[in-house]
Amino acid sequence: MEGGDHLAHERKKAQFDVEAMKIVWAGSRHAFEVSDRISKLVASDPAFRKDNRPMLSRKELFKNTLRKAAYAWKRIIELRLSEEEASKLRFYVDEPAFTDLHWGMFLPAIKGQGTEEQQQKWLPLAYKMQIIGCYAQTELGHGSNSSKWWPGGLGKISTHAVVYARLITDGQDHGVHGFIVQLRSLDDHSPLPGITVGDIGMKFGNGAYNTMDNGVLRFDHVRIPRDQMLMKVSQVSREGKYSQSNVPRQLVYGTMVFVRQTIVADASCALSRAVCIATRYSAVRRQFGSQNGGPETQVIDYKTQQSRLFPLLASAYAFRFVGEWLKWLYTDVTQRLQANDFSTLPEAHACTAGLKSLTTAATADGIEECRKLCGGHGYLCSSGLPELFAVYVPACTYEGDNTVLLLQVARFLVKTLSQLGSGKQPVGTTAYMGQVEHLMQCHCNVQKAEDWLKPAVILEAFEARSARMSVACAKNLSKFTNPEEGFAELSGDLVEAAIAHCQLIIVSKFIEKLQQDIPGKGVKQQLGVLCNIYALFLLHKHQGDFLSTGCITPKQAYLANEQLRALYSQARPNAIALVDAFNYTDHYLGSILGCYDGNVYPKLYEAAWKDPLNDSVVPDGYREYIWPMLKQQLRTARL
Ligand SMILES: CCCCCCCCCC/C=C\CCCCCCCCCC(=O)SCCNC(=O)CCNC(=O)[C@H](O)C(C)(C)COP(=O)(O)OP(=O)(O)OC[C@H]1O[C@@H](n2cnc3c(N)ncnc32)[C@H](O)[C@@H]1OP(=O)(O)O
Ligand SMILES: Cc1cc2nc3c(=O)[nH]c(=O)nc-3n(C[C@H](O)[C@H](O)[C@H](O)COP(=O)(O)OP(=O)(O)OC[C@H]3O[C@@H](n4cnc5c(N)ncnc54)[C@H](O)[C@@H]3O)c2cc1C
Questions:
Q1: Are residues 359 and 503 in the same domain?
Q2: By CB count within 10 A, which of 278, 345, 447, 473 is most buried?
Q3: Gap from CA of 260 to ligand 1 centroid (Å)
Q4: Is the pLDDT of residue 112 over 50?
């Protein structure tokens, strides 16, 4: 079959209004319209071509990124794009660049930690890109204070950095503070005296994150003017006297709360992209199972394929909604901070750290699973999946290693439990801990598989599991005379308790989403199916937790799995429409396997011939290496 829509028959099966679902996915009609318009703008502009990335050398790749970044900036100005539109443009250009750190970390660090005066001086320069900044926190060897190592944009492009370093006055160490430091001349881009700066070298995968100049930075007697210390949290006077404002010191880490929140939103984008590719290809691909000479089975109809693919589809939607909620939480905490209310900062920190950890880990694993779901063709660069994995997987490490972040959540949980004794009522995402007595002894009321579809039943099971795991950790911790020693010894269990808590947040935010008014025929019903798949898939995967804490019985675990299978059958006819609702262009997907029309095989065949290796029939090197070897073999054979 040539041309046409090879997935048309699948699209006809949809039991819901896809256009309405597109709006739910985008967040609002306005967000949908902006996203749709900008994605088409990028896709139709040859300057944003990206299919050649895996073939380019590092130098060519990097220069190409600089060209694209400058061109994108020119278009942003010419078209007078708003910040929302500009950030969508960056998203659809789909290439990590120094600009991400400039807009995503350098600017927010100055906004969050700079005084009014400092903001007035630096922000206009940064907004007009008259200076380019990065965020330099990580060191080559922890605590070595020797060299900064890793900051994106630092290696070759940034003119300035927010550098985190220890502040010492009069021999007294006041801990880590942020400083704005000029690194390179604004005239000829050469490093300023005393500054050594460069790129740290090639990273995982061709193309991928190698468009970014992650860098190394060393200082040798570099003087930073006093007014370039970010002074919202603490100050040094002209006389060298150190003082602190009436705000928590933790605000120094505020940029991380912001960025982690954006990383959660980004996880749903990366996962949905991989799932879109794997779902479309699974409907196109037929393999075995032919009956009476009829067509072979579409691989999407195999239950094993469904049980690997549909939880990922459901996770993409779940991460979307928890990301939306986290954005709200971040906006709320920011407004409170402006009004000197710091009470919700620890919760915002725990939620952003924990959800960053959970969603990036599931997304990185999910992209790799999608590659396997596409069989051998998934391994081709033209599937789009190898590069997506390579570019995404460092999200498990940057902005805080995922395990380190879960330990931060665990500390927050243990602290919340310990405060129950003093009568402090937990609020927000830990409000359920207030019911700890009930949750420690409640019994799950599931008697038949459909009982697992009741939101209250699911919520109680997840709350009881999380509360029981945290309480068990707290009890074990109390056996240690040295709390830090206990924390280190029990860190494995603490991480598991933190995961249980974060999974509960995601499940409960999905359920809350379904309580809203969601217009469009069948839309809410499909989201209900996905929500139940997400929750029951987690319950099935972690049934050891639910069983060992006595939250459910083995029979109830069995019934959950039975219900899960039924839900997969309900999702099946809607699968293609559910990924169409992401509204991704073929340019953004960058995948032959995931192309909208499903015309996979002719495109794969054509693409193979475009590989530079196929430019000539006889490859370079044949004459030099292979021909002499063959001749040698022939001579030996004749002898
Ligand atoms: C108009 C044109 C527009 C154009 C638009 C373009 C659009 C582009 C936009 C792009 C947008 C976004 C893109 C962003 C791209 C990002 C790319 C990724 C780059 C990656 C960058 C990095 O990796 S930066 C380095 C990050 N490093 C880490 O995350 C380190 C992890 N370690 C920690 O977090 C540690 O906690 C710490 C180092 C911060 C502190 O350790 P320390 O041991 O000193 O302290 P504790 O851990 O004991 O904590 C002490 C108390 O502080 C609390 N805490 C800790 N962290 C925080 C926090 N972040 N916020 C609040 N509170 C915090 C902790 O709970 C302890 O509290 P108490 O228990 O109460 O004492
Ligand atoms: C692509 C990329 C881009 C980056 N961009 C930037 C940037 O722009 N700016 C910047 O400042 N940094 C950046 N980083 C650095 C990044 O933030 C750090 O790599 C990250 O925070 C992890 O720290 P680490 O490398 O020191 O890992 P380590 O802390 O050395 O972790 C190594 C291992 O030790 C474990 N571990 C560490 N501490 C503990 C503990 N307390 N308890 C139990 N286990 C522990 C971890 O779980 C991990 O398994 C970037 C990194 C990458 C990969």
A1: yes
A2: 278
A3: 7
A4: yes
Burial class (CB in 10 A: 0-12, 13-18, 19+), 173: exposed
Q: What is the pLDDT of residues 280-328, one digit of tens each?
A: 999 999 888 878 778 888 999 999 999 999 999 999 999 999 999 999 9
Backbone angles phi, psi at 246, to 5 degrees: -85, 50
Q: Which pair of tokens denotes residue 338?
A: 């402006």
237 with 257, same domain: the answer is no
Please list the residues that pair with 162 across neighbouring strands. Answer: 135, 180
Q: Determine the residue type at 142.
A: H
Q: Which amino acid is at 493?
A: D
The answer to whether residues 342 and 485 belong to one domain is yes
Q: Can you tell me the distance from the alpha carbon of 273 to that of 308, in angstroms, rounded to the nearest whole number? A: 16
Give, in order, the Cα–Cα distances in Å from 265 to each of 139, 367, 586: 27, 16, 21
Rounded Cα distance, 135 and 114, in Å: 14
Report the CATH number at residue 185.
Answer: 2.40.110.10
Q: Find the farthest-apart pair of alpha carbons in the chain and give their distance in angstroms, rounded.
A: 95
Annotated binding-site residues read 138, 152
The total domain count for the chain is 2
pLDDT digits 0-9 by tens, 212-260? 999 999 999 999 999 999 999 999 999 999 999 888 888 888 899 999 9
215-219 and 195-199 as β-strands: parallel, antiparallel, unpaired? antiparallel
Sheet holding 160-169, edge to edge: 133-136, 160-169, 172-182
Q: 295 C-alpha to center of ligand 2: Å?
A: 50
Domain hosting residue 490, numbered range:
253-424+433-580
485 and 340 fall within a common domain: yes
Task: Give pLDDT, residue 422.
Answer: 87
- Do 212 and 316 lie in one domain? The reply is no
Which amino acid does the sequence have at 311?
P
Residue with tokens 């999974």: 503
Among all bound ligands, the one having the nearest atom to the CA of 401 is 2
387 is catalytic: no
297 and 317 in a single domain? The answer is yes
Q: Are residues 236 and 291 in the same domain?
A: no
- Report yes or no on 632 lying in a domain: no
**Whether the CB of 135 sits within 6 Å of ligand 1:** yes
Q: Which three-class secondary structure state does DSSP give residue 168?
A: strand
Sign of the Cα pseudo-torsion (67, 73, 74, 79, in order): positive
Element (H or E) spanning 242, and its range? strand 242-244
